[in-house]
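Q: Convert this sequence to structure tokens.
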Amino acid sequence: MLLRGQTFREWFVEFVQFCVVGLGSYIVDVGLFNLLAHGGFVTLPGDPSMTAKVISVTISVIFSWIMNRLWTFRKSRNDDKTREFVMFVLVNLGGMLIALACLWFSRYVLGLRSQLADNISANVVGLVLGTAFRYVMYRYVVFTRAPTPTAEDAAAEALDILETHEPGQIQLDVHASTAAPARTHSDDRPSRKDPIRIE
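A:
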């Protein structure tokens, strides 16, 4: 149930891909924010930093959805792209709320208001909890179609079988399965040599 038919190796590869996409999304967010807010290339309306952050977060979410759909969860992506994208956005909003909740708890419950405390609560604790939340929701809510085996999967499975069996073992197994033929209905019929009794 937890692995959804995957081997541990397949799950680990999926998780690593998720982390790589998350890192790429973070770079897109931070890089685009600094480029728009402090690069001097464009003039943004309103508060430049706030506007730049809205744009950078939006682009990073779209980037993350495309990469997770085409790479990390490509075998379980849904045909309904609109529903999938809406769920993806809602999950990311949930992850952001988790980070904000950690920041609020640190500032207003623990009374820690330094820059270091803010970064630890929001960008360390909040990031870890938010990332865990996103991964679970992506896996079990957003990208929920049952994985379909591909030709590459079949080839890999056949290779695993060959690697885990000794030479000749597969052939012996086949012979063993055919050594004792199944009993047919004709075996249950009386032999011609047996007398037929009529009462």
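The chain is about 70% helix and 0% strand.
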